[in-house]
Structures are given as C-alpha cells and as structure tokens.
Design goal:
heterodimer, A: mainly alpha, three-stranded antiparallel beta sheet, two-stranded antiparallel sheet, 5 strands, disordered N terminus, B: alpha+beta, 17% strand, DNA-binding (chain A), Postreplication repair E3 ubiquitin-protein ligase RAD18 (chain A)
C-alpha cells in the first residue's frame, strides 16, 4: 500500500513529524461536526500497532491485524491477540476489502478533515451556524472532495461485488489466470464523456462536466495509485508467492553452527548467541512474510534496513538498561551534586559568556562579588554549623577556594584585579552587618506573609539563627541576570557571603536555586528600597 | 530511535492527551524516552480512596506491545493487590502464555490489543474493588477481609496524609 510504504521509507522523518503533532489521529475529529468519524477511524486501526491497517490479514478466528503485527504477535504467543484462539501464521489470509477501505479513507481524509475543521471554525464565529454551513457545503472544493470519496467508494464497492476475484485472488493459488485486473466493472455507471476516466451515475454527468478539468487532476492521482496497486497485484500473482515465503524453523533442533549458516544463507547477520540468532531469524521471517503479503513489496535492501533498526532497538545492538537511563534525567536527580561536580565547567562557560557580553555592569558586579573572598570563611562556617540543608553551599566553598587559588596564581592581571576588588570591599565593609540584618528581617517578614508559596528549604534557612547562610543562599538566587539590578542596590550584604575568589567562581551557585527564592528577595528588596 | 514500540507509545500518548478518560492522566516522564511514563490516578468515588491522587510509574519493555509494561505506585497505597513496594499486581499486566499461579483466566491477561488506557482503567477499578484471591499485600488483604472498618480508616488516613492535610 502506498501510504504504508511512505511510512516505512520516511521512518526518521515520521518521528520528527510525530513529535510536532502532525500525525493523523482519530481524536482529530472530536471537535468537529463529524465526531462519528473518530469511531470510523478507530475501527480502521490495527489493534496492535494502533495505526491504520498496513496490509491487513485475517486470522482463522476472523480478526484482522496488520501482517507484520499479527506475525510478530503469533510468534511471541501463538494466539490471536483479540480472542486468544490458537492460530498459526501460515493460516493468515489477506483481507483485501479492508485494505482498500483503509487506502480510500486515507486518500479522502486530508480534505475531509480540513473541511470539517473549517466548518467548525465557521460555526464558532458565525451567529447563524446553520446558514454558514450551507455556504460551506456549496463551495466547489467541498463538493469535489466529497464527490471523489463517494464515487471512489462506490467504484470500490461495485468492483468488489461484481468482481469477487479481486478479493480472494491472492489466496487462491492455482486458478489465478482467469482474473483480469483491467476488466471494466459492470456496475451501471457511465464514464465521463470528456474522457477523464471518472465513472458516475447518469444523472451526475451533467454537473460533473462543469468541473471535469479540476477533477481530472485529482482523479489522475487516485487512478495512478490504484493502477499501481493493481499492477503490483498482477505481478504478485505471476510470481508464485507462497513459495517465496520463508518457513519457520524448528529452532530447538538446530545447533548453533547450522543456525549461523542458515542466517548467512538468508543474507542476514549471523553473529551473536543462538538465542539472539533465533530472535533475529524470527524477526526476519516475519518481516519477509509480511512483505510477501503486501501489494507493494519492498526490496530486500529495505527489509534489511528494517531488520537493522530492529537490531538497534530490540536485538543485539539494543542499548542496555544502563545506557538508556543516562539519556534521561532521573526524577530524583541530584541537581546540587551535579552542579558541584561540574562547577568548574559551568563557571568557565558563564565567565566566558559574561566576558563576551562585556556590559558596563560587569565591573561593579565583579568587585562586589570578589569582596566576598575574605569573608568566605565565616560564611562557610555558618553554613556548615547551622544548616545541613545547604550541603551544596557548604561543600562548594572549600573546593572552590582551593581551586581558585591555582588557576589565577599565574595570571598577574587577574591577581591585580582581585586585590583591587578586595580593597574596594574593605572600604565598604562597615555597612554590611546593618544591611544584612535589615535584609534578614524583611526576608523573614516575606516568609511569614507567604509561607505557603515558599519552598521548605528557603523557609528554614531564613529562620536559621546563623545569619551568614541566609544572604548566601539569597545571593545564589538573585544572581540570575534578571536580578542584576536588584543586586546593585543591596549587593554589599551579598558580598559578605560571596565565597568565591574570582569572577569566574561566582556564577554556578547562582544558577542553582529555583524561582520561589527569588520571590523572597524581590519582596525583601521592595521594602528595603 | 524509531521502533514499533515507540511509534505505538506515541500514538497512545497522543490519544490519551487529546481524549483522556475521567480521573486519569498519563504521559512519558520525558518525551525523549517514551518507555517510561508517569500516570496519575484519582481515587474512585464512593471508596475510601476517594479524594486521593495516586502517582504511578509505568515502564515499557522494548518489545511492547507484545509484552506488558510494569506499573509501580510512587506513593503509599494500602491495597490488597499492591505490593508494599508499590508494584501493582493485576492480571492485565501479566504476560500472555502460561499462568504460573493458575488463578487467572487467560482472557484477563495482557494481549497486544490492550493499551495504557485500558490498564489504567483496570487499575482504577481494581482500587475500587480489591481482588483478595491473589493478594500482593497479605496484611492489607487480611485487614480488608476481616476488619473492613479499620482498613477503610487506614486508607483514608493515608489519603489525607498524601494530600498534606
């Protein structure tokens, strides 16, 4: 089937499309006047892959599934997934009627859904939805699409009733020769006199003539699909397909070496344990046989590509559990720990970014930050004694101090600027305690006012008797760019607890805290100023 | 990574997002990995679990939907069919094939035509109506069978505590 072929070819593209939400889904219909189409679309879905039937097969118990789906399912379980009747892959039969219904529905779907959506929009914006509805339905485009659908399905229905061979031709193995795919269906319809090839009821000819040209294009597309399908089916019949199908092996009777040889004969990879080879062979047999069922068989190369993607997702090259988990962030991910571990890297990156940005603010900013150097120790002690909560803050400083001495030791410029800033800090030191207290009080008030919205750790830290730890955390919170201005105002008390020795050091800690901490600060600052 | 399993999980995710059943929300924890989901189930009305919201984690095997996912509640749930560690014991989550315990109908077990939605609905009804024939939490089952008022009181307490009341 043309659509399924597309799906497989553009597997990667399909994934990106899926993520962006463009994939057709039955729920697309729910908010339109054509709600019932959701159910219609649902029943055209295979119950295993939940997508439109791709080469549907009938089981012995008369359930339909995609060929590949039911083959995989039977080789895993040996029972029909719907009713759990024991069944075998060799007993599956094509369900051509269903396949054509799906193909037709898919061809008609895009227009139908766009019409349904447009009508819904119009109904929403119009005060008289009834009237607008009529207008929409009168437009040429709508008529055209619904006409196509109707006539196509009629054609299909007709060909199925008059030519029952179409349905079961591929199941019968011997007497295929009598079948004529090009036979004109004896369905009581007439062909368009302008030669567009469209068949319709006699009374429809007149209105059709007006739009023949427009419709011709559409019909051509549809016909080319249809004829492609028919042509392929003819080819299928000519090659005796049942012989092409691969037989399932009795794996328990095969030893590893013959098994490997068997796989290599088939042209598929023969590495891995016997168990893996068995799984690979099963997968290959299912892929291959499903392809034999298809009206548009794909090349062996494409099948091998499919097998390869199986290998990468479920086979021998599948990522192990540990590999998988590294790709996603765990829920209990230790953010603080991670920040600590990669502190140097983060600070380097941020410092680089700051340097590039080189905005005028950066100079005073840095000086304030660096003043903290000599007060680092008291702050650190306060942290460690008072609040075990802040092990990140508590463990940060020693490492940063230790390391910070080395990278800048050989850099006279940096050392000079640091010294300069330390002096600047000394000059302003006397106001710090005052500011600090004031700040703490406001912060405390803020917490009282809005306890519910504060994260627990901010709360405890503010109530903590050890003053140094409080602004320290605040500081971390505010250092995001948005709060640069705020910092300008009250940066001295932050400087006290700045334990980092270099411009590069200040940043990582500021990135850590979450929003609510900022809130305290905003509130505190408001009263402050 | 594009496999049958991830395609189907994406389909189910989209379906659950646009048309979710009452009292149930579910979706991948991270859209980059469709094989780990988080679900929230509301306690069914008219049961001691009413008012509670129970988070659970669903982990899907690579050969989903041939094999069922596993489901584990992330909260304390005192229930005869939920192991003390949160793992849910319900027939729809048991793989097809031979039944090691010989108490389940084959028709109740996992089949590829089941879906996340059906699992969560089944779990919701399991919460409402415990099955004490195959208890996962023996203590809870005994309490449910022999001391129903105490059982309900404990459940209500748990629910309140989980809501922070």
């Amino acid at each position: 089937m043309w659509h399924s072929l597309d799906d497989n070819d553009n597997a990667a593209a399909a994934t990106t499309m899926e993520i962006s939400g463009d994939i057709p889904d039955s729920t697309d219909w729910l908010n339109t006047p054509l709600k019932d189409f959701a159910q219609l679309e649902n029943v055209l879905h295979c119950q295993i892959c939940k997508e439109f039937y791709n080469c549907p097969m009938l089981t012995s118990c008369s359930h339909s599934f995609c060929s590949k789906c039911i083959r995989s399912s039977l080789s895993a379980d040996g029972r029909c997934p719907a009713c759990r009747t024991v069944d075998q892959a060799s007993k599956l039969r094509n369900n051509w009627a269903l396949e054509e219904v799906v193909a037709t529905f898919l061809a008609a779907r895009p227009k139908a859904i766009s019409v349904a959506r447009r009508e819904q929009e119009q109904a929403q914006y119009s005060s008289r939805p009834g009237k607008r509805k009529r207008v929409v339905l009168d437009s040429d485009e709508v008529e055209e699409s619904s006409r196509t659908t109707r006539s196509k399905s009629r054609k299909m229905a007709a060909s199925q009733t008059s030519n029952p061979d179409v349905v079961d031709v591929d199941d019968s193995e011997g007497d295929d020769g009598a079948y004529e795919p090009e036979a004109v269906p004896d369905d009581g319809l007439v062909e368009c006199p302008l030669g567009c090839g469209k068949r319709m009821k006699v009374e429809q000819v007149e209105p059709h003539l007006d739009r023949c040209d427009e419709e011709k294009e559409l019909a051509q597309k549809a016909n080319s699909r249809k004829s492609a399908t028919l042509a392929n089916r003819t080819i299928d019949r000519q090659s005796p397909r049942p012989q092409d199908r691969l037989a399932e092996l009795n794996y328990s009777l095969l030893r590893e070496q013959p098994m490997r040889k068997k796989l290599e004969e088939l042209g598929i990879p023969g590495w891995g344990s016997k168990q893996l080879m068995v799984r690979r062979h099963t997968e290959w047999v299912n892929l291959w046989n499903a392809n034999c069922d298809s009206t548009q068989p794909r090349t062996k190369r494409e099948l091998l590509h499919d097998l390869d993607s199986w290998e990468r997702t479920q086979g021998g090259k599948a990522p192990t559990a540990s590999n998988m988990s590294t790709n996603i962030m765990r829920k209990d991910f230790d953010g603080d720990g991670w920040a600590n571990k990669n502190k140097d890297e983060f600070s380097r990156l941020i410092a680089d970014a700051r340097r590039k940005k080189s905005n005028p603010e950066s100079t005073p900013d840095q000086s304030k930050v660096d003043t903290g150097d000599e007060f680092a120790k008291p702050a650190l002690d306060g942290d460690e004694n008072s609040s075990p909560h802040f092990d990140s803050a508590g463990t940060n400083p020693p490492t940063s101090q230790k390391q910070s001495s080395s990278p800048y030791a050989n850099n006279p410029d940096a050392m000079a600027s640091i010294r300069e800033k330390v002096e600047a800090a000394n000059a302003g030191r006397h106001i710090e305690p005052l500011m600090n207290q004031g700040f703490e009080n406001t912060a405390l008030n803020a917490t009282k006012d809005s306890t519910s919205s504060q994260p627990a750790h901010a709360h405890t830290s503010v109530l903590n008797p050890a003053t140094p730890s409080v602004p320290g955390t605040e500081n971390k919170a505010m250092m995001s760019d948005g709060f640069r201005q705020v910092r300008e105002v009250s940066n001295d008390e932050h400087a006290v607890n700045q334990r980092t020795g270099s411009p590069a050091r200040k940043v990582p800690m500021f990135e850590l805290p979450s929003e609510p901490v900022n809130d305290i600060d905003g509130a505190g600052d408001g009263t402050h100023v | 990574m594009n496999s049958v399993a991830s395609k189907r999980l994406f389909q189910e995710y989209e379906h659950l997002t646009t048309d979710p059943p009452d009292g149930i929300t579910a979706g991948p924890v991270n859209e980059d990995d469709l094989f780990v989901w988080e679900a929230m189930i509301q306690g069914p009305e008219g049961t001691p679990y009413e008012g509670g919201v129970f988070p659970a984690e669903l982990k899907f095997p690579k050969d989903y939907p041939l094999m069922p996912p596993t489901m584990k509640f992330q909260c304390d749930l005192w229930h005869p069919n939920v192991y003390p560690n949160g793992v849910v014991c319900i027939s729809i989550l048991h793989p097809p094939g031979d039944d090691p315990n010989h108490y389940e109908q084959a028709s109740e077990r996992w089949s590829p035509i089941q879906s996340v939605e059906k699992i969560l609905i089944s779990v919701m009804s399991m919460i409402a109506e415990p099955n004490d024939e195959s208890p996962a939490n023996v203590d809870a089952a005994r309490m449910w069978r022999e001391r129903r008022p105490e059982f309900e009181k404990r459940v209500r307490l748990d629910v309140r505590r989980s809501l922070g009341l």
